[in-house]
Design goal:
Helix content is 26%, strand content 25%. The two termini are 24 Å apart. The protein binds flavin-adenine dinucleotide (FAD).
Length: 453
């Protein structure tokens, strides 16, 4: 099989690494690669929307999965979708939303694959109600290192299933999956916008409204300080029913088309994002979002950033680290305050800060979510960033929190082991089905999931 050398990066453009890329479309070609391919090890790659190095593999093998993107079966009665793992959420929405089915949960971009969504056990704005993506996976087919294909589900090979859900591609190649979709009447969300004056009010509002709203998310002004620390614009939404639409919308309630997208044509210079421009943006965002209620179509509600292709270029060539910190419910108020205080008084502004309330824990052995609050922050890469993030890691650990593997690019092996107490269980399953570590990523090496060699 032909391997082509490419320079690869995740969405954060940090780190950037060479990789030997191959695209085996047929199963026998994939099997041959795993049992006798040139490279010492391989990692799967979907649409590369993880931020850091989870779909990179140093100067070694990377298996592109995007060519395996067929719909295999759709049961129009039950909403069960069977598809190849390289199918993207964008393709699923395009074909199935007009038929009244939507994804059980979705990240903030539709340009992810089903395989990537399972491997990261992704979560969305409905986590407090519906949990993470793995909960909607009925079963999946996995090609393991020996080339054998095994079917796994919560009841069949369940240990391998829960190691694969959230397992960041390290158990094998997810070939296909059956997913339970969610029925919807319209392609609109009824959104209530509410501004809060500080973090206490934001958390209070989440706990008051979590039961009433399917979706909730807060955009936080990350540079506000003192009594305004954590002031936010909260967006609370429910799927709109037909009767909530205007007469014109009611004529085609499931019609939705993505907005025309533009592209950021080049990497912006470093000077464009600085504490002053970020502060100006944050103040403006807070001021223009008045309290009120609106009908918003799915594309604008779930994927506001997708209309600007390659928007990650605004962070410049050096890239961005998205730091996503999850605090357990018991410590989140104090932990978030300390974290945000530290950020507001640093010289390292976060352009984007998004807070979500999280519901029940994902069952994946390395799944990220458990009940609490998760804050995602974008930090452009600068000279002082790594030591600063180390300080944030220590603070997060003191409060019993953890970082999200799909966003991580900098965590140390020690921090990871302290944050993910089921790591040994994961390693045992991996060593059983992948004894020679055929599946390795740069992240897995950095985090000590496999030994560096
Ligand atoms: C703008 C933006 C917003 C986001 N918002 C959210 C959010 O709200 N919630 C959230 O949870 N995440 C979010 N993410 C992260 C994203 O959902 C995950 O990183 C997801 O895994 C990306 O899928 P991908 O297909 O691009 O996978 P990649 O980034 O290519 O790979 C991610 C991981 O999946 C593994 N993988 C991919 N395909 C397979 C396969 N077929 N078999 C085995 N392993 C495989 C890779 O090895 C890697 O470890 C966001 C990302 C962006 C860029």
């Amino acid at each position: 099989m032909n391997h082509v050398e490419h320079r690869l990066a995740g969405w954060g453009n940090y780190p950037v690494e060479p990789g030997w890329v191959c695209r085996p479309h047929r199963l026998d070609a994939l099997r041959q690669l795993l049992v006798g391919g040139d490279q010492p090890d391989y990692i799967s790659r979907g649409l590369g929307r993880s931020y850091g190095d989870s779909s990179l593999n140093g100067d070694r093998g990377v298996i592109m999965q995007t060519g395996r993107n067929c719909f295999l079966d759709v049961d129009a009665q039950s909403g069960v979708l069977e598809c190849e793992a390289g199918l993207s959420f964008a393709e699923i929405i395009e074909h199935l939303l007009p038929r009244g089915w939507f994804l059980p949960t979705t990240p903030g971009t539709r340009f992810v694959t089903v395989g990537g969504a399972i491997a990261a056990d992704i979560h969305g704005k409905n986590h407090h109600r519906n949990g993470s993506f793995g909960g909607a996976v009925l079963d999946l087919e996995l090609m393991v290192a020996s080339g054998e294909v095994i079917r796994c589900s919560p009841t069949e090979n369940s240990d391998v299933f829960w190691a694969t859900v959230g397992g960041m591609g390290l158990t094998g190649v997810i070939l296909s999956a059956r997913i339970q979709l969610t029925p919807v009447e319209t392609s609109y969300v009824r959104v209530d916008y509410q501004r809060t004056r500080n973090l206490d009010e934001t958390l209070e509002r989440f706990s008051q409204t979590d039961a009433d709203y399917q979706y909730s998310v807060a955009w936080i002004d990350s540079l506000s300080r003192g009594r305004s620390l954590g002031r936010s614009v909260i967006m609370l939404g429910n799927n709109a029913s037909r009767s909530q639409l205007s007469p014109r919308q009611r004529q085609s309630p499931l019609e939705a088309s993505p907005p025309r997208s533009r592209s950021v044509p080049f990497y912006l210079p470093k000077i464009a994002l600085n504490p002053w421009s970020v502060q100006a943006f944050n103040s403006l965002y807070y001021e223009v979002h008045r309290d009120g209620s609106r009908l918003v179509d799915y594309y604008k509600f779930f994927y506001p950033l997708d209309s600007l292709l390659q928007w990650n270029r605004i962070y410049g060539r050096r890239g961005v680290v998205q730091y996503q910190a999850l605090f357990p419910r018991e410590t989140s108020r104090r932990g978030l305050k300390e974290l945000m205080d530290k950020i507001a008084s640093s010289r390292l502004p976060s352009f984007l800060a998004v807070l979500k309330s999280s519901g029940s824990a994902g069952q994946g052995i390395l799944s990220y979510m458990y009940p609490g609050h998760t804050l995602a922050l974008d930090f452009p890469v600068t000279a002082g960033l790594r030591p600063f993030l180390k300080e944030l890691d220590e603070l997060l650990l003191q409060h019993g929190g953890r970082l999200y593997l799909a966003k991580d690019a900098t965590m140390s092996a020690e921090t990871f082991a302290a944050m993910y107490p089921r790591l040994n269980e994961f390693k045992q399953i991996k060593s059983r089905i992948d004894p020679e570590n055929r599946f390795v990523s740069s992240q897995a090496r950095r985090l000590g999931i496999v030994e560096s060699s």
